[in-house]
């Protein structure tokens, strides 16, 4: 699963490079905003509201993460299928290149937040597909979803909860994004937002020091935070269902 994902990213990256060399994107319509240049797939129309949502959340999340939003290129496909036809699965943020390949129905903030996280800490310290990044990007995706409720509603198998978070430092499965978002929501509730940004900044070497940083900043090892988070999730469940 993890190997397949890494290959998928690598292939997409290579395909983008080849298309650029062929000047494939040169005649795409450009829409320039303060920080984002949007590139529209040929003959695609876009509502002003769609653009506005992205530009607003980009600046809003930059403030939350206390970074300057870098200028980026955002290539938009009408849907996943049109991207796949040319070898790009359009749900990707290339952090070091400051580029996004996205489609119309994605959440407004997820991919943009990946770019902002690249300003908080380098992808070699804070991997874009790892648990910590995916958690933040899901939590800040601009849909205002309660991640605790959402995670509870999905009925994940028990075994998932037993897996150490440290296994997911570099690669996090995309069907578990709500789960990652709920971890960030929990940390935010319990320790405040500032501690989370300090934690993200502290991560080194693909987050290999995440346990030590957690002890330093949250005053607890990750194992204990994980247990407390599970209790917090269950509490949310009982208050939603009203059964327990
Ligand atoms: Zn992501």
Structure description:
It is built from eleven helices and five strands. Mean pLDDT is 92; it is low at 240-244. It folds into two domains: 2-120, Glutaredoxin; 131-241, no CATH class. A five-stranded mixed beta sheet has the order 1-2-3-5-4. Helix 6 (147-154) packs across helix 11. Helices cover 53% and strands 9% of the residues. The protein has helices spanning 2-21, 48-64, 80-85, 110-120, 131-139, 147-154, 158-162, 177-191, 193-202, 210-217, 222-241, and strands spanning 29-32, 36-40, 72-77, 92-94, 99-103. The longest helix has 20 residues, at 2-21. The protein is α/β, with parallel strands linked by helices. It binds zinc ion (ZN). The site of zinc ion has 4 residues, from helix 4 and helix 5.
List the helices and strands and how they pair.
Blueprint lengths: L1 H20 L7 E4 L3 E5 L7 H17 L7 E6 L2 H6 L6 E3 L4 E5 L6 H11 L10 H9 L7 H8 L3 H5 L14 H15 L1 H10 L7 H8 L4 H20 L3
Parallel strand pairs: 2-3, 3-5
Antiparallel strand pairs: 1-2, 4-5
Helix pairs in contact: 4-5, 5-8, 6-8, 6-11, 8-9, 8-11, 9-10
The structure holds zinc ion.
List keywords for this structure.
binds zinc ion; 2 domains; 5-stranded mixed sheet; alpha/beta; 5 strands; single chain
Basic shape:
globular
- Give the integer mean of the pLDDT values: 92
Helix content: 40-55%
Element order: H for helix, E for strand: HEEHEHEEHHHHHHHH
The SS-based structural class is alpha/beta
Q: Looking at CATH, which topology of the largest domain would you report? A: Glutaredoxin
